[in-house]
């Protein structure tokens, strides 16, 4: 479990000494600024339940960035403090927690560590309250691609589903060219699963029009037993399978499918397989599963990435895709705060963030950028490879170039009427 | 006008509370308390309306969250419809609120007509079934409801009567108005002859029927009123979050509402409100230190059930009654012994 020490202490003092109303006054941003007290960044995330690992590793990532920043002197000596709260992964709870972080904890901005469902809830809160916000987890494309959802002061430091779909579609088209033309899908039955699967199949068809969809099966999120889906897949008898199951669900699905020897019968593309904790948790990791890179210490193969991996593992956690995304998000927020000299007005911070490029262990050329047109992250390492049973678990990595992604993304946005 | 009439007194009390809340909004400098209270108004209406069924009519509905969510969704989906805001202008929010109230009432009426034929566990299960049906509909009609991600893209809430729902204070005042209106409706029902009939139904439905009361009809009526008021709670939450989520219609919300009533007090009108405040307090304080909020709530409920053996407000009222009783007993015994002494004196 993760604790924010400073927040605990100040809160305890507060509960012990003053009434709630008094504290709210104390926490009002104007007074904080006058006193030169720390700038509080609120972080709603998932710290309990089956996907607690999401919030746990994301929190470590965020803290790494904040601690480094504070150790280097903060903003002319003024420190930054993270206040991390559990939303249990429920959208309505995420909305409530975010409002509480802003109104009762005196947070001036939000570093959002929610999965897609909660992210849209947090998104409405920060749009409503005009609060500067960085989404660090949600990969749902519509969050930043759909103009109806955009707000100029809200950013995303996570992968975007459509980028992975283009990269995955290109990669999978090689499998199709090699004869795997009958495809089936097995993805979680909620917005992220449906959208991501549709986007992947859309691009697979763009790159390999001969592909045919022979069947779909939709397990519920956090489903304990996959027998029904496995039976479906055996009946479909496809040449290849696509799945965007993730985290514990992916582990459970793989462990149960292995009993039926499912992965000997067809090729499998599981985009979220590449997360280290997933790879380590699967009991008998089959070789030759195709996966996106998520987070990998050798992709890109640089000293900076290796060093980040080592220092992250000192926390006792394994690095995840969520970890680097939240770390990166926190870096952007801190850089922006430095530029505004600690001012937290949403427009000022947004101006300081929009289009910014920072040095990053995860960038293809050592940098990542928050694209000016739609406030979303680009130039991060992206591509597909195959699993092997021994660490570091991935080989044959094929990166996808950002020029290719940008071209196809523009076409896709036109098709969706997003431009 | 008879100022001593209970209806007038209840309305007066609501008016006084409304004025006090407006004053609070004007003098309170921050946002925390106002936002917290707005959230409490929403859950307050959910449990108060459920209390009308559970506490006053003896109908344990396990699906009350359905009407809460229905209010929020009708409100949100109406305002998100293209051209609606342009058509209604400043009246959009009041019209949407009214529509949510009536729509939810109609929904509750239909469900009530079917469920009220049953009683006890069968009634509870059927209400639960309709709730799960609503959840499935919300999750299935992704195109209209956003499915499991809820109503996305924000709910437009144009200004009306100088109130801007994006501003904390304005939103608080409007929510307070809806809340007090909802509570007043329930209060008036419980004070009226309908309320007396409902209590009769709760205590002995067969005997009530023998008195010539159509118990089916009054149960449906109570169910409809309770549903509509719960819908008003959903409207408050939709205004606060600028969205609506399928979780609002989940069985967990219905279950927690029942726990809240038990925690606050089943036998007093304001008991459920005490429960809401306590639940929220436990939740928020626990969340500062750990993620085990459900554990903390469970312990609190265990304490109330095993130690107090009644809701908090019921316990306080009983305690006061017992004290007063003891005092009266003391007075009586003192008077008796005095009289006895005098009698003895007289005899001697």
TrEMBL record, chain A:
Q: Describe the family membership recorded for this protein in Swiss-Prot or TrEMBL.
A: Belongs to the leucine-binding protein family.
Q: Pfam families, alphabetically? A: Peripla_BP_6
> Do the record's keywords include Transport?
yes
Domain annotation Leucine-binding protein: ranges: 38-377
Q: Which Gene Ontology BP terms does the record give?
A: amino acid transport
Q: Which Gene3D superfamilies match?
A: 3.40.50.2300
Taxon lineage: Bacteria, Pseudomonadati, Pseudomonadota, Alphaproteobacteria, Rhodobacterales
User: Which keywords appear in this protein's UniProt record, sorted alphabetically?
Assistant: Amino-acid transport, Signal, Transport
* Name this protein carries in UniProt: ABC transporter substrate-binding protein
- Family annotation (PROSITE patterns): TAT (PS51318)
Q: Which domain of life is it from?
A: Bacteria
TrEMBL record, chain B:
Annotated GO CC locations: plasma membrane
* Cited CDD domains: TM_PBP1_LivM_like
Per UniProt, what is the membrane topology? Multi-pass membrane protein
User: Sorted alphabetically, which keywords does the UniProt record give?
Assistant: Cell membrane, Membrane, Transmembrane, Transmembrane helix
List the Pfam families hit by this protein, alphabetically.
Answer: BPD_transp_2
InterPro entries the UniProt entry points to = ABC_transp_permease, LivM-like
Q: Where in the cell is it found?
A: Cell membrane
The protein's GO terms of the molecular function aspect are: branched-chain amino acid transmembrane transporter activity
Respond yes or no to whether keyword Transmembrane is given for this record: yes
Record-given protein name: Branched-chain amino acid ABC transporter permease
* The organism's taxonomic lineage, starting at the top: Bacteria, Pseudomonadati, Pseudomonadota, Alphaproteobacteria, Rhodobacterales
